[in-house]
């Protein structure tokens, strides 16, 4: 029996993500929560002939507490998305408070749940959840995940475009490390499962890296004020949640990229810190999953000079983003 919960379930990401979770046979209960429209979304999904029993909740009558009770996996896509010209950090003012309040609800109603944070800026919202959990003495670094899967999905797609074989894209694995915004997104193309053509020029390499880092802007621009990536994000979120569900069921050796606290695996963190030459509290890297959450934080391994330069550019920005999140809670009275 696995209960999955989506907080922000009536939104652009929330609805298709809830649909994909409803379609996942590993989910037996699906709880949907939002400040609007969840009864309708739940009624609609409940007609799909898959095992999950669906229920929708709104804030009145302790809706948050009710939806979270018994939750094994909680996915958070609640909050506002970007409009053209905005960075993910511009969202902080609104989304930080939303994520803090939802994290407080989880800390009291489902402190053992695996928490998957989609709300941006992920680099800061994950530290916010960690700080809230610490305040409630329920922080387990192995169970908190920032969802960076979309960066990996985009990297696979863009590399397959360069290889001129879109059919390959699902098999192409490119580790994307660092964080989830602009220059903090660092694709390790030298470790791609499918080698890039040797004819790729430096300019073409730079264009590819830039596209992976700023791919989200393409969608924001094309949607022209109507939001940011929702469908590709729902796909990516369901991919990641699907791996978490399989790991919970006992499947071993599952690797997924995620933005996690380095406290989740101190041995792995020590190697990573040495590679980075800097102490960071949170970092995105391929992690191994198990029934208790993070089993292992994988090191970067062998990377090129160009990738080293990207990492150097990412770290100061990442440290700033983490600090912003930590201070939002730790600095609050
Ligand atoms: P949306 O505006 O379509 O949906 C957000 C939903 O959150 C709305 O239904 C809204 O009612 C709900 N909400 C607001 N306050 C809430 C609260 N206190 N409790 C529960 N629900 C609440 O936005 P969209 O497009 O679904 O994006 C959601 C978030 O995901 C944004 O912060 C966006 O930046 C982020 N995002 C993250 C990505 C990633 O790769 N991690 C990729 C794309 C978007």
Describe the 3D structure.
This protein has 333 residues and is α/β, with parallel strands linked by helices. The protein is built from ten helices and eleven strands. It has a six-stranded parallel beta sheet with strand order 3-2-1-4-5-6, with helices on both faces. Strand 7 and strand 8 (185-187) form a beta hairpin. Helix 1 (14-22) packs parallel to helix 8. It is globular, with a radius of gyration of 19 Å. The model has no long low-confidence stretch (mean pLDDT 96). The site of 1,4-dihydronicotinamide adenine dinucleotide has 34 residues, from helix 4.
Q: Can you tell me the overall shape?
A: globular
Structural class: alpha/beta
Q: What ligands can be seen in this structure?
A: 1,4-dihydronicotinamide adenine dinucleotide
- Fraction in helix: 40-55%
The largest β sheet comes out as: 6 strands, parallel
Range of strand content: 15-25%
- Strands, total number: 11
Count of alpha/pi helices: 10
Order of helices and strands: EHEHEHEHEHEHEEHHEHEEH
Q: Which spans have pLDDT < 50 for at least 5 consecutive residues?
A: none
Tell me the strand order in the biggest sheet: 3-2-1-4-5-6
Radius of gyration: 19 Å
- How far apart the termini lie comes to 40 Å
> Overall pLDDT, averaged?
96
């Amino acid at each position: 029996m696995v209960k999955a919960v989506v907080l922000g379930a009536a939104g652009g990401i929330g609805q298709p993500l809830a649909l994909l979770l409803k379609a996942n046979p590993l989910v037996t209960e699906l709880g949907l929560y939002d400040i609007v429209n969840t009864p309708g979304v739940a009624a609609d999904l409940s007609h799909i002939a898959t095992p999950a029993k669906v229920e929708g909740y709104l804030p009145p009558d302790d809706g948050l507490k009710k939806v979270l009770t018994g939750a094994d996996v909680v996915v958070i896509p609640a909050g506002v998305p970007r409009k053209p010209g905005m960075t993910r950090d511009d969202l902080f003012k609104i989304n930080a408070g939303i994520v803090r309040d939802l994290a407080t609800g989880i800390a009291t109603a489902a402190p053992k749940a695996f928490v998957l944070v989609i709300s941006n800026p992920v680099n800061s919202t994950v530290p916010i959840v960690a700080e809230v959990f610490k305040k409630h003495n329920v922080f387990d670094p192995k169970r908190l995940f920032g969802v960076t899967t979309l960066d990996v999905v985009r990297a696979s797609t863009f590399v397959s475009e360069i290889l001129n074989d879109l059919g390959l894209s699902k098999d192409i694995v490119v580790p994307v490390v660092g964080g989830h915004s602009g220059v903090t997104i660092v694709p390790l193309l030298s470790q791609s499962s499918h080698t890039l053509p040797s004819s790729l020029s430096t300019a073409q390499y730079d264009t590819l890296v830039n596209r992976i880092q700023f791919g989200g802007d393409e969608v924001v621009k094309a949607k022209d004020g109507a939001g940011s990536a929702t469908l590709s994000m729902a796909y990516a979120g369901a991919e990641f949640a699907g791996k978490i569900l399989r790991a919970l069921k006992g499947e071993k050796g599952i690797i997924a990229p995620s933005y996690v606290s380095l406290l989740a695996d101190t041995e792995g963190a020590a190697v990573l810190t040495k590679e980075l030459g800097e102490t960071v509290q949170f970092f995105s890297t391929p992690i191994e999953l198990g029934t208790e959450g993070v089993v292992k934080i994988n090191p970067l391994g062998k990377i090129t000079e160009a990738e080293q330069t990207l990492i150097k550019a990412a770290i100061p920005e990442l440290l700033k983003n983490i600090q912003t999140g930590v201070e939002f809670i730790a600095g609050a009275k």
